[in-house]
Amino acid sequence: MARVPRRCAQDESGLHVRVARVVALLESIQDDKTPTTAALVGQCMVDRLDRGSQLGPITEALEDLRRRNLVSYSEKLGYKLQSTAGEEWERERRDLGVSAETTAESVQEALRLLLASAERPRHHGRPFPWFGRYSDGQRQDAILADPRDEAVLTIDFRFINSEERSESAWIKRSSEHTLKDRLVWVAGSRTPVLEVARELGKSRAMVKRHDGRKESLPTARRHLLDHESDRSDLLKKRLQSVITDAFMAGTIYFRANPLRPGDMGASFLKSLVTAGTRVLPEVYPYFITTNLSPGELLPLIEKDLSGPSPKLVHDLKILDLDNGRHEPACTGLVPSQVREKIEADQGIGGANLLAHFGAPPYGYPINVVKACTLGLLRAGKLRIQLETGEFLTGHGDAGARDLIEKDRTFRRATIDKAIDDGISPQTRARVAKFFETQFGIHVERDDNAIADIVAARFPNIARELREVEERLARLPGASDPPPALIALQTALEACTRVVRQARQVVPQVKKHLDALRDGFQLLKVYQAELGDAAIAPDPGDRPTMRPFTLNEGLRDHELRTEADVDAMLAQLRERLLAQIHAGIRVRLR
Hints:
The chain folds into 4 domains: 3-82, Arc Repressor Mutant, subunit A (Orthogonal Bundle); 100-276, no CATH class; 294-417, no CATH class; 425-588, no CATH class. The chain is elongated, with a radius of gyration of 44 Å. Strands 6-5-7-8-9-10 form a 6-stranded mixed β-sheet, with helices on both faces. It has 589 residues and is α+β, with helices and mostly antiparallel strands. The longest helix has 30 residues, at 219-248.
């Protein structure tokens, strides 16, 4: 207290000294719950009832004493006389420099916290997360919030000086391509914000400087360190407050339209959410309310399209009901847009496809884009190359399920237009008819149905072929299998090798169709002729000649036309050749 009269000798009114004495008196009797404010000091200094309010001069005197480092102030305790240790602490704090970079980081931190506490704007009930950006005179497009979502609403905070805040300039800039889908919020005066940010920077610097050796500090300086830490917390809150005031005094721009924050709401957060909700329909004009669960995507890769979600049929029009059957017509707007994008880019990565249709002007959910992709795959309109290098050309190919269940698999896949394999509907019908004749079942004229037959039947036929070859090897004078059976083995291997890619199966079956037809017929003959009776248990006991009765296997056939005779002779020739190819000498009787 003795320093106050010496330092305030030029104050002829003596107000500074009287104010300091009241502060000292209150400091000695006040508790921590009631701070010493200018108003309280003024109440203690009333000497006459008819004297007017002295709050203004008293406040000015207190602030002058504070600038001279004779009193200190905190939100918690209010004004108090500065001790010698406190004076040294304040002098050290005052001499600290705060860089523009540190100030900008404090402003960004405060905006980041404010944005994290803001509600998400909604469009047709769907919340859109905030993507926050920040720019000032030194840095551009610093990221405040990145929700890692394709469908977002971007808020671009501009904390710039008065020369750059021209409304006419921002009306023009906000309609440019890079900013047209953003809310650009230009702040008002920066001065109060920068002052508080610098004070916060000094408090944090003091805490950082002394906190590491707190235990070794004198008691007075430990108390000062605790007070500085409290001051840092209060300044952090104060910074958020002055920032919201600065932006509420500014202007929001969207596509050449200036919006007054005060018209959007009474507070910063209310204005932000209201403005976001207002512009979302313009940012996402193609937005749809339809969304799908992973379970609703599964029918698109199943063998039979039974009981698909009505969303796939009516909302998205990926499927169409034709004669009681669901077909992947993909006539809706969304699947058409997806197909056009893939073809225009001549192939696109899954991550880029999701990002494109998640961003403005679409905002499509991830599973909607996946459903369209799988519908186009089922329709044979595209092919997908997995990260492993394997191609998917049909919905039944191995790996198709992972596109639904594993987001990483879809994002890392490459999606391209399907390659024309030259297979006509007539060819598919011919292959299906061949299988129907051979196996006595109905086969759909579809790549996946044909691939399913190959996967189910050909392994068994290959096993039967091996059994016949083993029996042939046990015959006397055994030689290589007939060329027709060798060709059959080659055809079976070629078809089963590509069975995981449905669209490649039909071309292989077409290529080897004659070999399959001849091989199947000859295989049946050999299976009938090479029974256990035809193979001797001991090589020495094997017959070298087998009698063959002319009418064996040909009984009860009535021949009426020349065609009947030709058919009978062809059957007889086929059976005789089977005996000869098996190394059996035939004697007619």
